[in-house]
Amino acid sequence: MIPLSLGEIAAVVGGKVQGDKTVTVTAPAVIDGRRAEPGGLFVALAGARSDGHDHAYQAGRVGAVAVLGSRPTALPTVVVEDTEAALQTLAAHVVARLRDGLTVVGVTGSRGKTSTKDLLAAVLSSTAPTIATGGSLNNELGVPLTMLRTSEATRFLVLEMGVRRIGDIAKLTGLVAPDVAVVLNVGHAHLSYLGSREAIARAKGELVQGLAPGGTAVLGADDPRVVAMRSLTDRPVVTFGHAEHSDVRVLDVVLDRLARPSFNLRTATGRAGVTLPLVGTHQALNAAAATAAGLVAGVSLDAAAAALPKVSLSKWRLELRDLAGGVKLLDDSFNADPDSTRAALDALAAVEGRRRIAVLGEMLELGEGSQDAHRAIGEYAARRADVVVAVGARPLAEAAGERAVALADNAAAVEWLRGRLMSGDVVLVKASRGAHLDEVAAALVSAPAEVLVQGPKNDG
Description:
Blueprint: E1 4-5, H1 6-13, E2 16-18, E3 24-25, E4 29-30, E5 41-43, H2 56-62, E6 66-69, E7 77-79, H3 83-98, E8 103-108, H4 113-125, E9 130-132, H5 142-147, E10 156-160, H6 168-175, E11 180-183, H7 191-194, H8 197-209, E12 216-220, H9 224-227, E13 237-241, E14 248-255, E15 261-266, E16 271-275, H10 282-296, H11 301-307, E17 319-322, E18 328-332, H12 338-350, E19 356-360, H13 370-384, E20 387-391, H14 394-400, E21 404-407, H15 410-417, E22 426-430, H16 438-446, H17 449-452
Parallel strand pairs: 4-5, 5-6, 6-7, 8-10, 8-11, 9-10, 11-12, 12-13, 13-14, 18-22, 19-20, 19-22, 20-21
Antiparallel strand pairs: 1-3, 2-7, 14-15, 15-16, 17-18
């Protein structure tokens, strides 16, 4: 964050300083006081379950020098009527001051946006200082917090943008208009909020409509709803995908024994080979999206291809881990919808192993078609896995038939898995975030071989 005194911050957000207005914030803003950095700003939000103002002292002990909140605290505080609105105003101000030397990239899509954001960050940071969304902090709080991490040295700002309702992305692009707008796909995520895939497309299309003057849209060529977003802008459009007409085309995808893809990316002027350290065929498409955005931002095809293999993904996105006793874990427990679950099951089927065990929880926010969607995934899982462990997802279990084991909750899943696994097994853990199946993955990671597997133990 650029250095700002509390007096300057108050002037920007229309607040009043309680305490020393000369105190200067020099580090990023946080909403979790435990994550404050020396010189940082603690943004105190009053929620239904806890009040951030009560944790100001703790934030100060970690290093925060000031608070942005709706009432005075133990630290020097800029007091405002609406803390969330003030945070957004401050973020917009900071990025506006840096705008001349900054290229802003927005990324959205129903699936793959966090992985694509991570891949794009790897591409851009190979050429210049880059700030990107941490994890999936892609909402009305996460985007401004990411924006406030920029400094005079930052040349690229990558913002993942999520959506639950029409207008969400428009509000975010109102804070900063992207120079590059990447739309990956239109799937089923958040159907319960938006009602239809057509509405999801309208919500995602707001990123294209929010482009800065001179900006470029980067669109997935394999999704007709995304291709149709050409009509939303008169700015240039670059496409990516498997489709023959894609400007950045994915060709010749081959998976190794751990389902890690190697492939070629072809443009009108060249071709480059890429091998990713990630699991799943779908990651080749995400890499093409990141490459297309990188090309628009001025990164060469060869530089992008060299940077992609160095990516490190946010956690719980098809993380491949070696467990005790020779078991492998595919931890994809961050979130799930039907499309991403099929991709995860395809990855499971492609990993070399003894048995393939899919531990699947509920896919949330699917609206009226939820039961049908779970049944379809159950049928699909039965074709991809040897055992389908359905956790609290009875329609899925019923559709998976004789391959299914229906369990009530995470504790039951952990209990069932322990002692039933064998050396060489591959276990996928996948569900929506609200199912908290990361608890199951964590229990498997921490279990010793004598607890986790049956028969002869192999720690290799």
